[in-house]
Design goal:
This protein is α/β, with parallel strands linked by helices and 477 residues long. Helices cover 36% and strands 9% of the residues. The strands form three sheets. A five-stranded mixed sheet has the order 5-2-1-8-9, sandwiched between helices. It has a two-stranded antiparallel ribbon with strand order 3-4. It has a two-stranded antiparallel sheet with strand order 6-7.
Length: 477
């Protein structure tokens, strides 16, 4: 029978010893004191360690930082891209011949692998390829032009594709006549980017002017001319209405032409939270959730209740008298109950949008109730077509909506309880960040001369808060 020739792996410690015993390296110097440890710790024939000796690892790192630049003197014409640290998405590392020779000639496996950003297995494989000879060939066997050729995207053709044909990778790939996987790889390598385009209201010149005036009114009066800075906005309560569905995000209704659109089921009021110097919450800013519902008796029997049982029904058509009664009977008393006593003598503003059902700022009945008990509560309107100037539309509604979706309410009462729990469970610190986002949006509006063509800026508020550097007021450029 034919005997298979036994392949004997070279002793990797011999190659490593050539580097450690280099007469040019003074093992007694403090910088190279790491090599005075037991040589058994540097056995390169063993599997890589999962846990390393702390002193050895720190010593290797110190030696690498101090001497690696002189030890690894690689040709300046080598491919610089091969020295990049791999990103989170690991790619196959292809070493050129200069790098492979440097790996073969140099010493300790871990240091070499770290220098060339490859695995320890790769270093050991190159050493095994050479045998024990110092000048054996360790070059790769690839020809000059090998491998699969990269598919290039015609940028002129890409720009000529209409936007409605770029909504999915499949339709874009069909327009470019290439595989969808090719576009997906380009997306991962950030040669392409994904953009979400939300519908924004059309702004007239009058709308832009009113937006600018509103943003300017939120600046400190004595700081406009030298160092403009926003007010704290602690005396402004934002109110708005929102649909909260049992299961769906949207619902369809059939109405008569003269009927009002049913757009509201719940009114929410929120102010900016307050914290003391130690960061403890002293006022959550949560005024309340006020469901726009009524209690009506059931008209007939069912498996769930008998006729005459009171049921909670949403108010399908919210008119101005309903809004007035909710403000006077529910919102204002709750504000007086929860508002910090030390600030009750200062004006309090309730900011609302310009819906037709909202009461005017000088409503006689509202003003009479708002002036009672020593309070000075006033109404103010945000600019038309400007939902980003209300913290509820800016982020609060979507936040508590996501919390409410985690539950499975079966009826209107359970839905109301789920919304209230989401409202009360929302963090006051996150609510405070939304007010800072509001100020950053105002800066972008003023920079764009009232336009809404801007992206909501990000300022790493969570990180700044952890580091204790989160501001309460933003400055304008």
């Amino acid at each position: 029978m034919r005997q298979e020739k036994e392949f004997v792996l070279p002793d990797l410690n011999v190659v490593a010893a050539d580097f450690v015993d280099d007469p040019n390296v003074d093992l007694n110097s403090p910088e190279n004191a790491i090599f005075s440890v037991d040589r058994s710790l540097l056995d390169l024939n063993r599997e890589p360690f999962v846990e390393h000796d702390i002193s050895l690892e720190m010593g290797l790192q110190t030696f690498m930082d101090d001497n690696l630049e002189d030890v690894f003197n690689i040709d300046e014409n080598a491919n610089e891209e091969s020295f990049q640290i791999p990103s989170a998405t690991r790619k196959v590392k292809h070493l050129n011949n200069t790098e492979r020779r440097a790996i073969y000639n140099k010493g300790v496996t871990k240091i070499v692998a770290s220098q060339f950003s490859v695995s320890i297995r790769t270093v050991q494989r190159i050493w095994r390829q050479s045998g024990k000879g110092a000048h054996d060939d360790v070059s790769h066997k690839k020809t000059r032009n090998c491998g699969r050729k990269r598919i290039e995207i015609n940028m002129d053709q890409f720009r000529g594709i209409p936007l409605h044909r770029r909504t999915t990778l499949e339709s874009l790939a069909c327009s470019l006549n290439m595989a969808k996987s090719t576009l997906f790889r380009r997306l991962k390598s950030r040669e392409l980017r994904r953009h979400s385009n939300a519908i924004k209201p059309f702004l007239t010149e009058e709308n832009k002017r009113s937006r600018l005036q509103f943003c300017l009114s939120m600046l400190e009066g004595d700081s406009i001319h030298h160092d403009p800075i926003f007010r704290g906005m602690y005396n402004i309560i934002h109110i708005d209405e929102k649909w909260f569905q049992l299961t769906k995000k949207s619902e369809h209704y059939y109405l008569l032409p003269e009927e009002e659109d049913p757009i509201r089921t719940c009114k929410i009021a929120i102010a900016r939270p307050r914290f003391d110097e130690q960061g403890n919450e002293i006022f959550s800013g949560k005024i309340g959730v006020f469901p726009l519902v009524t209690r009506e008796p059931a008209k007939r029997n069912s498996v769930n209740r008998v006729a005459g049982t009171l049921e909670t029904k949403p108010i399908a058509s919210v008119k101005r008298n309903v809004i007035r009664s909710f403000l006077i009977e529910k919102v204002i008393p709750t504000i007086k109950e929860k508002w910090p006593r030390e600030d009750s003598r200062y004006p309090i503003f309730i900011q609302q949008d310009n819906a037709r059902t909202h009461i005017p700022q000088d409503d006689i009945e509202f003003c009479r109730v708002a002036k009672e008990d020593g309070f000075d509560i006033r109404l103010m309107c945000q600019p038309p077509n400007s939902p980003e100037l209300n913290v509820l539309d800016l982020g609060f509604f979507s936040a508590i909506q996501s919390l409410q979706y985690k539950e499975s309410p079966k009826n209107v009462d359970e839905l109301i309880n789920a919304v209230v729990r989401a409202f009360e469970g929302f963090s006051a610190r996150k609510s405070n960040r939304i007010f800072l986002t509001l100020q950053s949006c105002m800066i972008e509006i003023m920079r764009g001369k009232g336009s809404n063509k801007f992206k909501i800026p990000h300022m790493s508020k969570a990180m700044l808060e952890r580091e204790g550097r989160l501001p309460t007021q933003l400055k304008c450029d």
